[in-house]
Automatic annotation (TrEMBL):
Free-text function comment from the UniProt entry: GTPase component of the Pelota-HBS1L complex, a complex that recognizes stalled ribosomes and triggers the No-Go Decay (NGD) pathway. The Pelota-HBS1L complex recognizes ribosomes stalled at the 3' end of an mRNA and engages stalled ribosomes by destabilizing mRNA in the mRNA channel. Following mRNA extraction from stalled ribosomes by the SKI complex, the Pelota-HBS1L complex promotes recruitment of ABCE1, which drives the disassembly of stalled ribosomes, followed by degradation of damaged mRNAs as part of the NGD pathway.
One term under GO cellular component: cytoplasm
Encoding gene, per UniProt annotation: LOC107756395
Stretches for region Disordered: 104-128, 164-208
Protein's UniProt keywords contain Transferase: no
GO molecular function: GTP binding; GTPase activity
Low complexity bias spans: 171-184
Superkingdom of origin organism: Eukaryota
Organism of this sequence: Sinocyclocheilus rhinocerous
Protein's UniProt name: HBS1-like protein
Locations listed in the record: Cytoplasm
Quaternary assembly: Component of the Pelota-HBS1L complex, also named Dom34-Hbs1 complex, composed of PELO and HBS1L. Interacts with the SKI complex.
Alphabetical list of PANTHER family matching this protein: TRANSLATION FACTOR (PTHR23115)
Lineage summary: Eukaryota, Metazoa, Chordata, Craniata, Vertebrata
């Protein structure tokens, strides 16, 4: 009790008279707790961080617009300083850089008298800058007028798309005459002068290359045709094409004898011809094609790039990759009793492969009815297969006049390169052999005049300082020494070498499956599915786009938020059906219903698709080759579609040093 009385009567003011406990001071009338102080500090840093993010985004946009006009001639530090000086206004910053550099180009050189080592270094650096900048200024000066290269557009954002360039290509006047530079003595440019600018002797330039004439000269004037071989697993695709290559002389007898001996030791004697295309140990051990095998052969009038696609359902994504790069196709079916039915009925790959190639733009198809020797070349069996397949392929969108049926035998080689002389076959079949039908295919029209586009199918390290990418050129053409832009990483690199079918070339055009050796970029930034494009007219990368799709035989109705796997060229990307826009009439395209709750099999609809990562793609109306895609769900192909509108935007990566300059100069 006494202790309690002492506590109640204790004078606390005497103890705290001169102390400052937890932020309490004798001069202050308030108290700040440690938690409150930390919250204030945290809020302060959050505000600074948000402020930095806003300014960083403005700087990104400003520098992208400036780089689109000036190219790579101006150092990054110069662009950053100009952007910061004019509060990230690209127009004022560009005017400042162009005016300053043009003034430097007009300034006559001073006499070099009594100049120290430091002054000499400055003059050399100034000359080097002039030599880099003068060509850009000269390229923008035509007929005494200063062209703006499309900079009248105030913003690069259009429909939420962040594009690396301001205008899709310069004006025709600006690109009329290439300019030159002399490293030791840069020439001044007079805007009022109409004299032509001398050209730098760099060999064959893009303006001088007549691509159509060069294509006619190459391969003796033979057009290129990309052929994919598809069909159900164990239909004999690899054996059929391997035997075809052997009969054409693309595989010598010594190599073929080696394959025969090795296949016998492995207990797979009938797979000898398949080993011509199935080169990996795992493919040979399992007896199935797993990846797209690629080779080349020639007919009387064409050069054929052959792609042997896998038939097993587990490797459908690889088959889609091959079919997306093909112009025509050979569908191989097994004529054996029960085997054709297994591949053609539900669950077989004959139907799915036929739908896939047609949806990916293949219109000409040769059906190789294989293993006809096992049914004694019966006409009735052949007609039965033709009847069932013909009805299905017509429903898939093939015209009867574009589908051709050829009885063959991959193991014996009958009716492959020459017309068969087997009496049981010649008694009722008088049509062409398989090679003749391939040679009769019509080559497609190539988009050579359009801007350069190449979809990367493989990336590997080169022996030199750069690395190699392989893929098919979908549009335009490329030459050694050209600069290309990789999207979506938005990085520029230089093409140092071009290889087509193991042959080094100076150029390659649309339709070619090439290997490019590139430098100036880190290999870690390039993935399969990236698009190499013309820096002046780049492809757009997005995470959200609108498309028109055709639904196949699906078991589960598609609703908003439905997860799918997007297959586009060589890209396989997880995606989501973000919005169901409308249901369309199959033939007329008329809107039947807006904002449907779900989509069922066989319907034609407009949807909005969201991808997890940016994907570089084109509108179908601009590039048919780069506007098609497939949707899959739980191992089945559920829809095919074409891109109609790009909605999403990408984040343009930026160099860390620019951010450091921004932070140090503007905020800290």
């Amino acid at each position: 009790m006494s202790r309690h009385r002492n506590v109640r009567g204790y004078n606390y003011d005497e103890d705290f008279e001169d102390d400052d406990m937890y932020g309490q001071s004798v001069e202050d009338d308030y108290c700040i707790s440690p938690a409150t102080g930390l919250c204030l500090i945290f809020n302060k840093f959050v505000l600074i961080f948000l402020f930095v993010c806003v300014w960083t985004g403005r700087l990104y946009s400003c520098l992208d617009q400036m780089r689109a006009v000036l190219g790579d001639s101006i150092p990054d530090s110069t662009l950053t300083q100009a952007a910061l000086k004019y509060d990230c206004d690209p127009h004022r910053a560009l005017d400042f850089i162009l005016t300053e550099e043009n003034t430097n180009a007009h300034t006559p050189p001073k006499k070099k008298t009594q100049v120290g080592m430091r002054s000499q270094g400055k003059m050399l650096n100034s000359s080097r800058v002039e030599a880099e900048v003068v060509p850009k200024v000269a390229r923008m000066t035509v007929s005494g007028k200063k062209q703006t290269m499309g900079f009248d557009v105030r913003s690069v954002e259009e429909n939420g798309i962040v594009a690396p360039s301001v205008r899709r290509g310069p004006s025709p006047e600006v690109t009329a005459a290439p300019t030159t530079e002399t490293p030791s003595k840069p020439s001044a440019v007079n805007e009022d002068s109409t004299a032509p600018t001398p050209t730098r002797p760099t060999g064959k330039s893009k303006q001088q290359l007549n691509i159509h004439a060069e294509l006619e000269k190459r391969q003796g004037g033979k057009p290129l045709l990309n052929l994919v071989v598809i069909g159900h697993v164990d239909a004999g695709k690899s054996t059929l094409m391997g035997h075809l290559l052997y009969l054409l002389g693309n595989v010598n007898k010594r190599t073929m004898h080696k394959y025969e001996q090795e296949s016998k030791k492995a207990g797979k004697a009938s797979f000898a011809y398949a080993w011509v295309l199935d080169e990996t140990g795992e493919e040979r051990n399992r007896g199935v094609t797993m990846d797209v095998g690629m080779t080349k052969f020639e007919t009387d009038s064409k050069v054929i790039t052959l792609m042997d696609a896998p038939g097993h359902k587990d490797f459908i994504p690889n088959m889609i990759t091959g079919a997306a790069q093909a112009d025509v196709a050979v569908l191989v079916v097994d004529a054996s009793r029960g085997e054709f039915e297994a591949g053609f009925e539900a669950g077989g790959q004959t139907r799915e492969h036929g739908l896939l190639v047609r949806s990916l733009g293949v219109t000409q198809l040769a059906v190789a009815v294989n293993k006809m020797d096992q049914v004694n070349w019966q006409q009735e069996r052949f007609q039965e297969i033709v009847s069932k397949l013909g009805h299905f392929l017509k429903q898939a969108g093939f015209k009867d006049s574009d589908v051709f049926y050829i009885p063959t035998s991959g193991l014996s080689g009958e009716n492959l390169t020459t017309r068969s002389e087997v009496a049981d076959l010649t008694a009722w079949y008088t049509g062409p052999c398989l090679l003749e039908q391939i040679d009769a295919f019509k080559p497609p029209q190539r988009s050579v005049e359009k801007p350069f586009r190449l979809c990367v199918s493989d990336v590997f390290k080169d022996q030199g300082s750069g690395f190699c990418v392989t893929g098919k050129i979908e549009a335009g053409f490329i030459q050694t020494g050209d600069k290309v832009l990789a999207m979506p990483p938005n990085e520029t690199c230089t093409v140092k070498g071009i290889t087509l079918h193991d042959e080094a070339l100076d150029w390659a055009a649309a339709g070619d499956h090439v290997s490019l050796t590139v430098t100036g970029m880190d290999i870690i930034k390039i993935n399969v599915g990236c698009i190499f494009c013309d820096p002046k007219e780049p492809i757009r990368a997005c995470t959200r786009f609108r498309a028109r799709i055709l639904l196949f035989n699906i078991e589960v109705p598609i609703t908003q938020g439905f997860p799918v796997l997007l297959h586009y060229q060589t890209v396989s990307e997880p995606a989501t059906i973000r919005k169901l826009v409308s249901v369309l009439h199959k033939s007329s395209g008329e809107v039947l219903k807006k904002k449907p709750k779900c989509l069922s099999k066989g319907q034609n609809a407009v949807v909005e698709i969201q991808t997890q990562r940016p994907v570089a793609l084109e509108l179908y109306k601009d590039y048919k080759e780069l506007g098609r895609f497939m949707l899959r769900y739980v191992g089945s192909t559920i829809a095919a579609g074409v891109v109609t509108e790009v909605k999403g935007s990408t984040y343009t990566p930026f160099l860390t040093k620019h951010i450091a300059i921004l932070y140090s100069s503007a905020f800290f």
